[in-house]
Every structure is written in structure tokens, then in C-alpha cells.
Amino acid sequence: MASKALKVLILHFLCLLLFLRPSSSSYQTDTLVQGQGLMLGEELLSTGIFFRLGFGCFSKCYLLIWRNDKRARLENIVWVANRNTPISFDAFPSLTIDDYGNLTISYDGGRSTFVLYSGQEARLNASAVLLNSGNFVLRELNSDGSGSGSWRGVDVFAEGSFTFGLDPNHTNQLVILWRQDIYWTSGSWYNGSFNSSSSLLTDSYCDFSYISNETETSFTCVRKDSTPLYPQLAIDYLGVLSDGRTLVNCTTSDFSNPCEGCVPQELPECRSHYHTFTPYSGLWDDIDGFRFEGDNLTLMDCKSKCLNNCSCVAYASTIQDAQTGCQIWWRSPRQYFLQDFNAPRTIYVLDSEGKSI
User: Fold this and answer.
1) What are the residue boundaries of the Bulb-type lectin domain, all occurrences included (predicted)?
2) pTM of the shown model
């Protein structure tokens, strides 16, 4: 038993090193060819040395694309292939293109697979290329030597709580959607700028431009001449929009003076936006809480479920590392609490219920 525990501990340590180590690999190519495997610890590198692709592991493993810069990997990820289907750290995943041209992640010794792309017919001479744009493209080499693309990784993404992009109803403004509801709006584009929240987006490393004609409606982000950084707009699981600096953060809004553009969440009469929760780290008995099905709920989703249930006094993620899954309590778990700042779980307790802990 001790030997088995030691093996698991060593695997955990090795995967932690793989996840946190600087980006370096003997696999210095931008292309994965048919019949070849990209193993844990190996990476693809775009020809311009702008992006890398490989597996990142901590308690779970994910296929990632990240910018090739000096930031920690968690800070520069641009794409996650299997966010809703994480792979166990000891399953040793590999990325392959099989004999039929299917792009898959194999693990557990090939007994399990996660399919990224499955074509309608068998493909020969298929390859997947990491481009300087950050796109990961599956291609097939034709008999005349020309190539044709059939799949782009950027077009495949896991469902998240927050989405940043064009307002589907008013396409001359940018919005953040929480699920399907408007969470933040930039205001309409007018005379070369947004007529609301402009102070937030003008702090960005981007110079925005807007195009609207018969064939295209889009916003474009171009690097400002005054900054050496390549702009990367990112939205996290809390709905915070950033480009290396925080641009929009509605989670810290003072509701008597809300952040410009933030749209308050509709709440039942038993709640107000002044209700707050305090996080406590410790050991908790799994008492009479309710666990929601599925692991795709973020911490913000869980907080919303608690606020919309008048009996809820506390909430927490069920998967602490990923901050996903949701459990809520109708009875304060205070009497079952042992405070431990190094404990793996954090529970958020309604202040009116939890201040006496």
C-alpha cells in the first residue's frame, strides 16, 4: 500500500513539473503528421515562435495552446481543447492523427479517446499545423502537392459561463454574456469610439476599429504603437476581461456606484446586491448540502444559484482545483468546520450567517 501511494505521489510530482516548467522541448516542429503521436512533455512550436501546443497537467491534464512568452503557462493560455473532459494526470495522454485522418487525444494506454475531429471519409497524408496566428489546423495533402484545410481548433471550444464578442442584437457594440444574459456592454460604437465605458477599453493595448458592410460586421483589435506587447483579450471564468491588465471586472462593483457598463443580475425579493459571502478555507463534513449535476458550473454560476435560492446560506465548488461543479447549503456548516488555511476546499458563507465562525 505504501509503495502504491509513493508511486502516485511521484506521478503527481512529475506532472506538476511538466505543468510548471519553462517551455522547452526536443519536439521543435510546428506539425503533427499522420501516424505520429504528441506525448505528454512534448510540444509543437509555431514557425514564428509565437505559440506552443502541448499537454498541461496538474491534478488533471488538458491539451493547450499558449503564447510563447515569459509568463507562467496559466497566464497565457489561448485555447483549451478538452476543458469539459479533463484527463487524469496518470493516464498519460497523447495527441494523434489516426489512419482515417481523425484527430484524437488517446489516454489510458489507448483504451480511451477524446475526438477533436472526425471526418466523413478516410484521409491520407493528413497533418495538423500550429500556425503563427495561434490557430491549430488539420490539413490533407492532395495528390498534386496542394493542401486543403478541414478543421481549425479555434472553431472548437468548450462551453463556458462567459462569452465576449459582438452583441447579437446590436452589432455595433461589444458585450459580455453570462450564459445567454447580458452581463456587461461597451455601449454603441460612434465616431471612432464607444459612447459608453470608453474609459475601460481605451486603457487596453488594443486600438479598436469597426467594420460594417454587406459582407462583414466585425470589430478588430490592433496593437497600439505605444505598447511593445501583442494584444491578447481574454475573459476568465469569473467574467473578468483583461489584456494583461484588468479592463472589465463586474464582480467587484460597488452597487451604489457600479462599474460602467455592468448589468446587475436580477435577484428574488429575498436577496439584494448587497448580500456578500466570505470565503473560509478548512475541513468540512459533507452535511446536508445539495450537489448539482455536472462539472461545467463555474464558481460564479454556483454563487448565482445560491443567491437565487432564498434558503441558501453557503456555496462551494465541488472540484476545488478547477473551480467547477457546485454544492450549496441550506443550513450553515459552521459547526462542522475546522479552520485550516492549507486545506484543499473553500466554502463561501453568507455574511449574515457566517461572521461568527
Assistant:
1) 29-151
2) 0.63
The domain 2-155 having CATH identifier 2.90.10.10: the answer here is yes
Q: What whole-number distance in Å separates Cα of residue 21 and Cα of residue 213?
A: 47
What are phi and psi for residue 85, nearest 5 degrees?
Answer: -135, 65
Q: Residues 280-298: pLDDT tens digits?
A: 887 666 667 789 987 678 8
* 246-248 vs 327-329, strand pairing mode: unpaired
145 CB-near residues (< 8 Å, 6+ apart): none
- From residue 206, give the alpha-carbon distance in Å to each of 50, 181, 198: 18, 26, 12
pLDDT in tens, 98-112: 888 889 999 988 888
Q: Could you count the other beta carbons within 10 Å of the beta carbon of residue 160?
A: 17
Handedness of CA 135, 136, 138, 142 (dihedral sign): positive
Q: If DSSP codes are grouped into helix, strand and coil, which group holds residue 51?
A: strand
What's the grid cell of residue 131?
500556425
Q: Domain spanning 277-354: which CATH class is it, in words?
A: alpha beta
Contact predicate 83/158, CB 8 Å: yes
**Are 2-155 and 277-354 in the same CATH fold?**
no
Chain segment 96-151, per-residue pLDDT in tens: 998 888 899 999 888 888 888 877 666 678 889 998 878 888 887 654 444 455 55
| Predicted confidence (pLDDT) per residue in 37-78, tens digit | 999 889 999 998 889 999 988 678 889 999 888 777 777 788
In angstroms, what CA-CA distances link 154 with 136, 231, 266? Answer: 7, 17, 33
